[in-house]
Amino acid sequence: MKRALKYIKNKKGKTLLLGIIFLIIANFVLAGLLVYNATVKAQEQTRISIGADVNYIIDNEGIIEDSLKGVLNKDDSSIIRASFMGGVTTSEKLTEKGGPTYSNIMKVVDSEYVDSYDISLSFEADIQQLESYTQDTGGANASNHIFDIKLFSDVAPSDFDNGSAELVEGEFPSIDQINSGENVVLVEETIASNNNLKIGDTITNTVSVLDYEDVELELKIVGIYKTNEEVDQRLIGRGGASLLPQNRLYVPFNILKSIGLSDEELEHLLITSNVIHLKDPLYTDEYKIEAENKIKFNYGKLDANDDLYDSLMGPIEKLGVIAKIMVIIIAVAGAAIIGLITALTVNERKEEIGIMLAVGESKIKIVMQFVIEVTIIAIIAFILSSFTGSVIGEKISSTVLESDIISSSDNNNRGFMMRSAGQFSMGNSKSVNTRGNQVDMNTNRTQKNDKLSLENNKVDINFDITALIQLFGLGLLMSIISTIIPSLYVMRFNPKQILINRT
Questions:
Q1: CB 356 within 8 Å of CB 434
Q2: What angle (nearest 5°) sits at the alpha carbon of residue 409, between those of residues 403 and 410?
Q3: CA 490 distance to own-chain centroid
Q4: Which 3 state secondary structure label does DSSP give 209?
Q5: How many helices (H) and strands (E) does the chain have?
Q6: How close are the terminal C-alpha atoms of the chain, in Å?
Q7: In whole angstroms, what is the distance from residue 173 CA to residue 159 CA?
Q8: Per-residue pLDDT tens for 341-377?
Q9: pTM of the model
Q10: What is the DSSP secondary-structure string of 375-391?
Q11: Which among 270, 275, 273, 217 is positioned nearest to 81, based on CA atoms?
């Protein structure tokens, strides 16, 4: 140790040269490690920001592909086309092909990763005793008695969970009432006020689904809610006043059995509006893999806002790959350079080595002296790099992300325009979801996505003790290997040979 310190002190020039090389290597290795670790954290934070909600949606591409191939017969095509138009549809073909039918949804929600789920379905009901709400007057419409029945399966329906509606009086149906399909209902406060309704009142409505005869249902009001939903005027223009959120009645999903649906029809019932709440957003990938082992997704897929995640993470993942490659290349090149310098230094010190061996110094102690010399210089360089490495990492990340964000934004805009033009099309049908099942989900998701953007998704390169430990571990390993190898080459000679050949 003393000889190592004395050599470092006496050979200031070589020490400074080796220190500068180590500092340069350490700066870029630390920068790469900091950037890579930051990208891993950014991926986790992005997934958490997007949320733990997964939607089981129809895969338009799979259906269109089979339709063009002629795989679907006439009945299958008409049923699936109806699914794009909204309303209540059952299809055994959709179940077989992994579409979002009731039975398939029950399979994917049966998972240790799932916290809760909500499935909803909308259809119109004629309630003669009630006057619906109209935007024109802001009050009751005595000539219109058509309302929108929205079924739900969770004790906290998704519209209430995401803030589109809030309960102001009464209570949500209990889980027992929901599972049994009890005849209870939540009504909007405007409808309750205009029609003098209160908690405990009963309303009679007439409904018909799947071409069944009209069925009269008596629904007991257990809660009154307030809607916070923004009205889409284009949607109202196509679907009528029943699509106004004030005219929406929330009823337990299993009431479908009271309407007349058989167990088999319920199994194959298409449910395009659903949300699966995972226990943790980071379980998303594992959950998808588990679901794919249960169902072969041809006409459906699990969507955890994947398009947004991919658009946000594309540049960041690229940055992580660049950082990883940079660390490997610089570490290998740095080890080679330091090894070469050490080899030249050791070769110049043959006489010193020969004298030490001649006086009885062990070869291991001599090699350890060289290792200690290089390690001390390396540690000093590593400490200095801890102040500058994060600055270099920040510069690298900002440069890469700035260029990728611009290109990704352009691509996303073009992709959005293409999807908007053809998202709901199939064959020659004019397919828009006028009942709002899929629209509700897309609207809520769009509002959430607006809060996230590529510009806001930055990689923060901060001092990371983990990266510093990795740097010290990698640097010391590199120093030891690059020193021992050339030292062992000299150590194979005996003292006499070294001193004879010193000239």
A1: no
A2: 95
A3: 56
A4: coil
A5: 19, 12
A6: 28
A7: 15
A8: 777 777 777 777 777 777 777 778 877 887 888 888 8
A9: 0.62
A10: HHHHHHHHHHHHHHHHH
A11: 270
